[in-house]
Amino acid sequence: MVVFAALAFLLPYVGEIPVIGPQIVTQGVDWPSALFNMSYYVLLALGLNVVVGFAGLLDLGYVGFFAVGAYTVALLTSPDSVLRTEWGWLAAVPVGLAVAMVSGLILGWPTLRLRGDYLAIVTLGFAEIIRIVATSTETLRGDRGFADIPHPPGTLADGKPMFGVADATPYYWLGLAVIILVILAVRNLDRSRVGRSWLAIREDEEAAEIMGVRTIKYKLWAFAIGAFIGGLGGVMFAGEQGFMNSGTFVLQFSILVLAGVVMGGAGNIAGAILGGALISYIPDRLRGIEDPIWHTDLFGFRFAIFGAVIIAIMIFRPQGLIPSRRRAMELKDREKEVAPIE
Amino acid sequence: MRQVLVRAIGGLAVVGLIAGAAACNSDSGSDDTASGNCGYKLAFFGALTGPAANLGVNIEQGFELAINQYNEKKGSDCITVAKFDSQGDPGVAPGVARNLVADKKIIGIVGPAFSGESEAADPIFEQAGVPSISPSATRVSLSANGWKTWHRAVANDDAQGPAAGNYIKNVMKAEKVFVADDQSAYGAGLAEVVKKTLGTAVVATDKTEADGKQTDFSALVTKVVSSGATALFYGGYYQNAGLIRKALTTAGWKGTLVGGDGMKDPGLAKAAGNAAATGTIVTCPCSPPEKAGGTFVTDYKAKWNVDAGTYSDVAFDAANFMLQGIDAGNTTVEKLNTYLGATEYKGIANTYKFTPTGELDPKFIKVWAFKFDAAGNTIADQEVPAV
């Protein structure tokens, strides 16, 4: 674990390694920026993994929480905001996270009676509401967005700000530190009574309820924690970009994160991290590479290539790249159950 | 055993895909011939893919044409074109911009094309000191950031909006005007200024979704028809505008559709049908490309096999402005920036001189009105006062 974390912190310098390094780093996007993008995708995947992977609640509107976190920070800090508070980034973070968490509860409360497909539809609606409100209300400034969102505080020894605009490495390190904290917290939750309750709910909600698991409470927990982590991704995003508008929070983004979690291995933290990193890394890596036939940027084909990769993964590893051990066992069990009927 | 094999093959396939893509890196080594002020790069930054790519491609082609002509004149590949595709997305722009400034051979940028991505990317260019000229980002607030390396070669929305409003009021003599916008940074900003100019002539307002997100405009059409307006100003882009024009004609509305430079594209006539689009007025803080001096129009057509589009000529001028600076020996970002700030440059579309905030000098601001003809082309109508 510690070795992994140390290696992750050194990733911005991977380009220096001869032969292998240049194959890994992105060409069209600055490598530290690509790493930072990966870090907030990983955060989102970790959060969604709690909701989908642990508690088994299919959430298609997860990016809504990301948007709530980012917009709260923007509203509190940007000089464009109607509030005109112009707080520092750090001061706005706890508020952003709290608002994201509360919005998770607000969404969770009425939707708790729903299951499966129905829950997916309601969450889909939630994401659309967030998007439309962001686009259409005067307060949230739609496509015009918020400029001059302050960066995280801190100055270096030479007086320059620690989090500048020219280098994304510090943002990546900050993101990584947050990810490590989130991993520790989520892993502890998963191994606790809460985690076991989620597991029971995921496997069979009625049975869990009869056995004395308070399903409503633990489903709300899952939603709120997922929303909190999604909000974390949002506040990081706002702090790095300095500018945000409604264009970022499209539905496709939600689906991409969900694809990342399923691809990596739902219910497994390592799997979610890998999946989240890949959905951000693959398109960025394709940028700046010329395809041999049409001589255009391969980036233009990103979704086609991406789709092919996902299909390949789903055919050869339906349980995900790094599956949850329990899920893999379940899939095996089901295979056995199905076999005689064939 | 079989399963293990399948897994191994699957894993290999995925790794192979990624590694295969990685193997054909386009990043080839560049040669160092710094003689005769050569060996430098000029960059285009804007959308080349994505929903707003049309405008980006117009600009890129004008920009690339200028550099090709310069290289031909020099008889060598003196200045290299570097293209940076931001997709017009402020979320993508910073990463691409950091990648741009990492290349120390790039000493000038034409772009960013849109206002949103400008907000996200320009602070990075500013910190790196790389001078940029945007041929199309018209948001007013951009010049208020105190950026020293930022310039724009067109008038901002505060100039275009009043011109469109004046045209509706004085030339069309419309007394009832309906104002709608697509809620984009560009469309909403422009519509706001037009509303201010028109004052009480505005009978009603409405909003639509952005381009590509809405195809049924019957709600807007009903409102326009029942408002009794004789003119509709739409702040938005050509795709929506074309569909709106089509729906309005189908509903029997006889008034005129008026819009800004975002609607000045043959795509409007394509979406609406040439007959419906005829008579639609678009304003643009640009000169008609056919009035552009020299052989630009024919050169452009010969090179790209399409007609020069909106801002192609401005991008051509911006690139030539920088090339002239490089030719004069300004081969560092600082020198080139000083040169751009101090020089008056006469291009094919306009004469350029920048104010200390990077805006175009007000005396060179031109706004033209264009009319769609029966063949779906925009024909220059008249120059309109931008006050």
UniProtKB/TrEMBL annotation, chain B:
Pfam families (alphabetical): Peripla_BP_6
Signal peptide: 1-23
Keywords: Signal
InterPro entries (alphabetical): Leu-bd (IPR028081), Peripla_BP_I (IPR028082)
Domain of life: Bacteria
Domain named Leucine-binding protein: residues: 40-356
Keyword Signal: yes
The UniProt record lists the keyword Signal: yes
Family statement: Belongs to the leucine-binding protein family.
Name of the protein: Branched-chain amino acid transport system substrate-binding protein
Record organism: Actinoplanes digitatis
Lineage: Bacteria, Bacillati, Actinomycetota, Actinomycetes, Micromonosporales
